[in-house]
Write a structure and sequence with these properties.
It contains 18 helices and 18 strands. It has 512 residues and is an alpha/beta fold. The chain has a 7-stranded mixed sheet. This is Aspartate aminotransferase.
Length: 512
């Protein structure tokens, strides 16, 4: 069969032909001909055709299989033509130079790798737990690393109000046009009202701005980028120790410097209030301090209202910029106002906070990626300037946010019947988590455990810092197929009335 090479292929072939071999003429013949039968096996091995040039000379052609290069062994071409179109399919051409036989020369067709210096990254600790869980054949296995709500049968749960909102949206047969850079207006308004309260002075005066984001992670990253560009007074962001694992790379990759303040006391499995106040009082002025509004992740330890008040006072004296992360409003206590209390109190005390929100947990919209980022400003003029710069930041990041999840959330928040149903459902999710905490402690006592497990019920939200030691965690994984992260954090969403007794038995066995 006759094959013709394109102009680029002609130039490449002619370059190859200019490489001399001993006792043979230079290979400069025009490229056009038929591949002999002897070459067609190698031709197929390369995955492409071979075009031959009219030269009666033996030319060994080798393409390496190793590192994405195909090895063909030497061919002796006695035909009137020789060509290498098939080698265009491989990463390198190795023509004979000086003698025939082994590979003596390399002519790259394309770079074999731009990324040879890229090292393998460490596995995600949560995903690693899930992968190990999936491989386990124990019928009693438990995955307590998952960060999503499960019902009492251990199944993913879609809220009824979400289903109804989806049906209403589908019935309207709306378009799929781009949202504005700042997101869906109805959503951002409802988002801010949910966090700050509909009667908040900040909203009435118009001195805040809210943009729709790619859930909580996207909100944090937009906020981090905004700080990196405009908060020039200090580059330091102080995180509670410990904090959500993603906080560090989010702020670090935005160019901020990470510091820590005391938060969790491993001796009591509770809040280190005195340590936190002491550290906060030493933070340099105008630094950024990140606070978990409710249901601290990963510890489940929240300050009490009187502790929040004292923290707000110290933070104000230090003139620190407060960055609230509120990913669990309503999901912590079951009461949306109680869970937003800290945010609202700080604003009442004169803090112009920035706020990240997520609707992944409290509406179960995990994959819809629905979130908001709010900046409380001095006045409306400042708010307009901030909004303009947020849009400039967002435009090259993701241009505009996704539509569907924002429509679902705004429909629920703006429809009285759906809103009431949502409040009931989010409380039922929170109540189930609280009940599982109580049942776990009760079953540990039945097992005969003499340890103090009060911290399990004192903590709040999806996660519980059990206080288990690394060797105890290993025992639970290896002996009982109870999977969790090495720090002993468990997701209470993975505990059900059907497996809580088994979990208590396993924990007791590992800790006695």
């Amino acid at each position: 069969m006759t094959l013709r090479l394109a102009n680029a292929e002609n130039r490449l072939f002619n370059r190859l032909m200019q490489i001399p071999a001993p006792s043979s003429p230079l290979l400069r013949a025009p490229v056009c001909g038929v591949a002999p039968p002897a070459l067609r096996g190698g031709e197929r091995a390369c995955g492409g055709g071979v075009v031959v040039a009219p030269v009666s000379v033996a030319v060994p052609l080798v393409a390496l299989f190793r590192s994405s290069v195909v090895r063909l062994s030497s061919f002796c071409l006695q035909s009137s033509s020789v060509a290498v179109m098939a080698l265009l399919k491989s990463s390198k051409i190795i023509p004979a130079i000086g003698s025939y036989g082994p590979v003596l020369g390399v002519l790259p067709l394309r770079a074999s790798s731009w990324w040879s210096e890229v090292q393998m990254g460490p596995p995600d600790p949560i995903l690693g737990v899930t992968e190990a869980f999936r491989r386990d054949t124990n019928p009693k296995k438990m995955n307590l690393g998952v960060g999503a709500y499960r019902d009492d049968q251990g199944k993913p749960y879609v809220l009824n109000c979400v289903r109804k909102a989806e049906a209403q949206i589908a019935a309207k047969k709306m378009d799929k046009e781009y949202l504005p850079i700042g997101g869906l207006g109805d959503f951002t308004k409802a988002c801010a009202q949910l966090a700050l309260g509909p009667d908040n002075e900040v909203l009435k005066s118009g001195r805040s701005v809210t943009v729709q984001t790619i859930s909580g992670t996207g909100s944090l990253r937009v906020g981090a980028n905004f700080l990196a560009r405009f908060h020039n007074a200090a580059r330091d962001v102080y995180l509670p120790k410990p904090s959500w694992g993603n906080h560090t790379p989010i702020f670090r990759d935005a160019g901020m410097q990470l510091k820590a303040y005391a938060y969790y006391d491993p001796k009591t499995c509770g809040f280190d209030f005195n340590g936190a106040l002491d550290d906060i009082s030493k933070i340099p002025e105008k630094s950024v301090i990140l606070l978990h509004a409710c249901a601290h992740n990963p510890t489940g330890v929240d300050p009490r209202p009187e502790q929040w008040k004292e923290m707000a006072s110290v933070i104000k004296k230090r003139n620190l910029l407060v960055f609230f992360d509120m990913a669990y409003q309503g999901f912590a206590s079951g009461d949306i106002d109680r869970d937003a209390w800290a945010v609202r109190h700080f604003i009442e005390q004169g803090h112009n906070v920035v706020l990240s929100q997520s609707f992944a947990k409290n509406m179960g919209l995990y994959g819809e990626r629905v979130g908001g980022f709010t900046v409380v400003c001095k006045d409306t003029e400042e708010a307009k300037r901030v909004e303009s710069q947020l849009k400039i930041l967002i435009r090259p990041m993701y241009s505009n946010p996704p539509m569907n999840g924002a429509r679902i959330a705004s429909t629920i928040l703006a429809t009285p019947e759906l809103y009431k149903e949502w409040l009931v459902e989010v409380k039922s999710m929170a109540d189930r988590i609280i009940k599982m905490r109580e049942m776990l402690v009760s079953n540990l006592k039945k097992e005969g455990s003499t340890h103090n497990w009060q911290h399990v019920t004192d903590q709040i939200g999806m996660f519980c810092f059990t206080g288990l030691k690394p060797e105890q965690v290993e025992c639970l994984i290896n002996e009982y197929s109870v999977y969790m992260t090495k720090d002993g954090r468990i997701s209470m969403a993975g505990v059900t009335s059907g497996n809580v007794a088994y979990l208590a038995h396993a924990i007791h066995a590992a800790t006695k």
